[in-house]
Amino acid sequence: MKSSRGITLLEMMVTLAIAAVLLAAALVGMQSPINRQRENEATRELWASTLRARQLSISTNQPVRIVVEENVPRGDGTTRTVARWEQLRCDNDWDNASCPAVGCENTTCRANPECCAGEQAMGQDIVIPTTMNAAALHGLCYMPGSGRPVRPGDLGCMRDSIDDPVALDAAAPGNLRIDFTSGRARSLIMVEPRTGLASILDCSSQAAIDHPVAECTQ
């Protein structure tokens, strides 16, 4: 009669190790669609924010810009990169060439709340996933009254050139890149140079394949 034996410690450790590997693989498989969904949502929220900024710049006769800020404290104790629109305060209310107010050309309203006209003059934070880089939109500004867009990088919103159509044409933002480290293709926020209307292009989409855009390959 054969005697039965129990599982050895080594066999148990091997079994647990295999189970851990299988669980980790399953979690990675579940996380990828979640990350993709977050990237999609943030990209569309950024696009919607540019449309809102344009609309406000026309209706309020004040410049409205998009800012992307790093290391912003969140309610859960973490710090994240976030984006939002900001409607800027002017030095006076009869001349939109006085916008933004002096001292607000190189700072955000988070750093200096006086640069915005109250809490209603700032959009909701858009949390940027860690796999996503939207820095190209930082400083995208819509000019007061006209809604004309000027390229990112200058938080002063072309204050000294508001009545200079040549300078405004030269500052048109073009196609703004959103890059990802998750392996997905780049997306573009495509801003029409005169009207400021924006659209999204996914560089892996059929539209990008049929009509190639330089920023998708550079």
UniProtKB/TrEMBL annotation:
Which Pfam families has this protein been placed in? N_methyl (PF07963)
Q: What is this protein called?
A: Type 4 pilus biogenesis operon protein
